[in-house]
């Protein structure tokens, strides 16, 4: 069993971006600029945004953090996004999810210009990805691809099983693993809550992407020897033995599955750091596209 260590791979990606950004500055070009909007004071969102801002500083990007009250109206938020769309210096825009219930997530996503959609959620970005055209990939699936590439995991002709069909992870990673390039050329099966014989399907898989949000759902008896396991789940589970009062669990029962796998991601420290690295990659690409 080998660990797919997201901390190591994300650092390698950031080191490369730091060098490329320094080269841009030497050429008299602007540094990539990421603008992040944080609404309210959700603890998890605060942590995620802080990590993104910190990563920008590490690689030499400019970042702008815009804090807004949870009571902000949808109209005022969309106006703020329009301002950022029109600001030439801003290359990438992200709005940290989840949003307050009175704000339409879809309207927010569709208001961000596709050329600044570094989260890869805009329908135009998704459509271009499906057609194999240049596009910003959603950050978490893109981070998974970067990890598979770093560890030189063979994907051509492999059977990949994706558990989960969300627009953020499951659906896009199924498309990306199916594309005619590396990492890709997999035969992909997408499983979900209505799938029959999920265990039998997983036992056929060379690669499993677990992205359903149920802690320790994937057990050892659902995985064949030598499979590659990517655990996208991250759930806080009450744990009185921890100072924080909770433990972080993935969708994979690591202790059961790891001994059978050839490669497996830990939680935390696997896919999470790669999501931020992929976001940095998208922001750099958005900036470079303006040259």
Describe this structure as you would to a colleague.
The chain has 291 residues and is of the alpha/beta class. It folds into 2 domains: 27-113, Leucine Dehydrogenase, chain A, domain 1 (Rossmann fold); 139-271, NAD(P)-binding Rossmann-like Domain (Rossmann fold), CATH 3.40.50.720. Helices cover 39% and strands 16% of the residues. It has 10 helices and 11 strands. A 6-stranded parallel β-sheet has the order 1-11-8-7-5-6. Helix 7 (170-178) links the parallel strand 5 and strand 6 (187-191). Helix 2 crosses helix 10 and helix 6 crosses helix 7. The radius of gyration is 19 Å and the shape is globular. The model has no long low-confidence stretch (mean pLDDT 96).
């Amino acid at each position: 069993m080998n660990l797919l260590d997201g901390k190591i791979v994300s650092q390698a990606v950031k080191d490369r971006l730091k060098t490329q950004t320094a080269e841009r500055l030497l050429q008299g070009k602007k540094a990539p600029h990421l603008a992040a909007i944080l609404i309210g004071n959700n603890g998890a969102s605060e942590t995620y945004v802080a990590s993104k801002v910190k990563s920008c500083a590490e690689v030499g990007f400019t970042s702008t953090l815009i804090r807004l009250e949870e009571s902000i109206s949808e109209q005022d938020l969309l106006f703020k996004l329009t301002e950022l769309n029109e600001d030439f210096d801003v290359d990438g825009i992200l709005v940290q999810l989840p949003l307050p219930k009175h704000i339409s997530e879809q309207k927010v996503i569709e208001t961000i210009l596709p050329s600044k959609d570094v989260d890869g959620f805009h329908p135009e970005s998704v459509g271009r990805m499906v057609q194999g055209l240049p596009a910003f990939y959603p950050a978490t699936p893109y981070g998974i691809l970067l990890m598979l590439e770093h560890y030189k995991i063979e994907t051509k002709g492999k059977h990949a099983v994706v558990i989960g069909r969300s627009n953020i992870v499951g659906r896009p990673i199924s498309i990306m693993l199916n594309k005619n390039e590396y990492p890709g050329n997999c035969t992909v099966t997408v499983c979900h809550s209505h799938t029959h014989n999920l265990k039998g399907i997983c036992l056929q898989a060379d690669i499993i992407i677990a992205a359903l949000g149920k802690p320790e759902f994937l057990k050892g008896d659902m995985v064949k020897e030598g499979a590659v396991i990517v655990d996208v789940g991250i759930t806080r589970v009450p744990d009185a033995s921890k100072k924080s009062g909770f433990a972080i669990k993935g969708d994979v029962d690591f202790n059961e599955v790891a001994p059978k796998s050839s490669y497996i991601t830990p939680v935390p420290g696997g896919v999470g750091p790669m999501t931020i690295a992929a976001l940095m990659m998208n922001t750099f690409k958005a900036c470079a596209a303006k040259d």
